Amino acid sequence: MTAIIDYDAGNLKSVEKALAFLGDSPRITRNPEEILAADRVILPGVGAFGDAMGRLHRYGLTDVLRQAADRGIPLLGICLGLQLLFDSSEESPGVEGLGILRGKILRIPDTPGLKIPHMGWNSLKISPDCRLFRGIPQESYVYFVHSYYLKAEEESIVAASAEYGTHIHAAVESGNVFACQFHPEKSGDVGLAILRNFLEL
After folding, report:
1. pLDDT at 11
2. Strands (E), 26-166
3. Which is nearest to 15 in space by CA: 112, 99, 80?
4. 150 touches 110 (CB < 8 A)
5. DSSP 110
6. Given a cut of 80, is residue 10 above it in pLDDT?
7. CB distance 135 to 117 below 8 Å
8. pLDDT of residue 137
9. Which of 76, 86, 99, 111 is nearest to 195 (CA)?
10. Domain ranges across the chain
11. CA angle 36–194–141, rounded 5-degree value
12. What's the number of CA atoms in the CB half-sphere (13 Å) around residue 92?
């Protein structure tokens, strides 16, 4: 069973639908025992960093997510879910993230001709031997919606990157922890293949 963390984030149902399409039995939950007993955990998210961290604290989910990561349960952050796994975000100064991975979330710089938020399809430069991207061709296109991006502290965890006014760390892998800034559940066949790779870990 895949536990989809329920903290009133926006894209829960689309993630649930994509996983069910792939034959999984996902469950949207905020029950700590259910989350820690799951085969896999997904932290989705749409919205603001500070608000999301506030909800995770309110529902008692911050320690549960850290425990899941420590116990080796495969954990996938999606969009805002990626950002929450890291230390902090320029979007919400003074708010600490989960700190499961090291890095900062920065605002995409204003660039002539590019709109913010970055909304649409973008190609990926995929790092070699990444489990999340097994069988997925270089320069595959995925769907992004974001105004802030990850700058990971360690390049070694970057599984894929994209260019949009700056160099964006678009996906990461570190042990059992994975995350995508883009939305695999909205990225067609490529996104489904990424989710299938996660389910098969």
Report:
1. 77
2. 27-29, 40-43, 75-78, 88-89, 103-107, 118-123, 125-126, 141-146, 148-152, 158-163
3. 80
4. no
5. P
6. no
7. no
8. 97
9. 76
10. 2-199
11. 140
12. 17
Is the CATH code 3.40.50.880 the one for domain 2-199? yes
Query: How far is the C-alpha of 163 from the C-alpha of 38, rounded, in Å?
Result: 35
Q: What is the pLDDT of residues 71-91, one digit of tens each?
A: 999 999 999 999 999 999 999
The dihedral sign for the CA sequence 110, 113, 115, 120: negative
Which residue in the block uniquely carries the two structure tokens 């749409």?
A: 46
Q: Which tokens in the block code for residue 44?
A: 């989705």
Separation CA 80–CA 151 (nearest Å): 14
- Indicate the pairing of strand 177-180 with strand 75-78: parallel
Query: Which amino acids are annotated catalytic?
Result: 79, 183, 185
Q: pTM (2 decimals)?
A: 0.97
Q: Above 90 in pLDDT, residue 9? A: no
- With beta carbons less than 8 A apart as the criterion, state whether 169 and 179 touch: no
- pLDDT class for 52, splitting at 50, 70, 90? very high
For the chain, give the mean pLDDT: 97
pLDDT at 46: 87
The first and second tokens of residue 54, run together, are: 């506030």
What is d(CA 40, CA 35) in angstroms, rounded to the nearest whole number?
8
Token couple for 107: 């605002």
